[in-house]
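Reply to dn_fold:

You asked what the input looked like. This is it:
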Amino acid sequence: MLSHLKSRNLIAFILACGLLSVMFIFHAEQQADTVEKNSNSSARKCLGLVDRSIKEPALRSVARGCLEDLRQRDDKDPVMLFGLGWISQLQGANAAAEKYYAGTIKELAELEQFTHYNLSFIKEQRGDISGALEQVRAAIRVSPDFKLAQDRAKVLEDAANAPK
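and this is what came back:
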């Protein structure tokens, strides 16, 4: 009887790993797009100009121009959006600054949800089901409509509640 249970658990484990691998590969492209949108070192250089413009206000138009050029290439880059918020704030355009800051938060939340989602796989591979659940729940807190995380939470809850 014990060997039968062990072999059933092993088969269930192998099937679960296969399913998780397929899910991970299936969503890798969507995650790669999100990461690509959020990795713009040119925007960080523009932030340096914004920072310098605090002491040298004449640089503010140069900093805004730098950020506006970046916006033409990617209007959702959170670093660029933050920079436009900051420069708008320094120029007294607080309504525009709020709009850009809100865009920053939105874009970062998308990246954060996938970060927690991916960490759940690492925790699970280490055998830390409760840690995996914690990460996937964090992804859901960031983005309550994140279907992948909702589905993954159900799988992990079942694994956590499965007889050992």
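Helices lie at 2-37, 41-55, 60-73, 78-90, 94-125, 129-142, 147-161.
Hope that clears it up.
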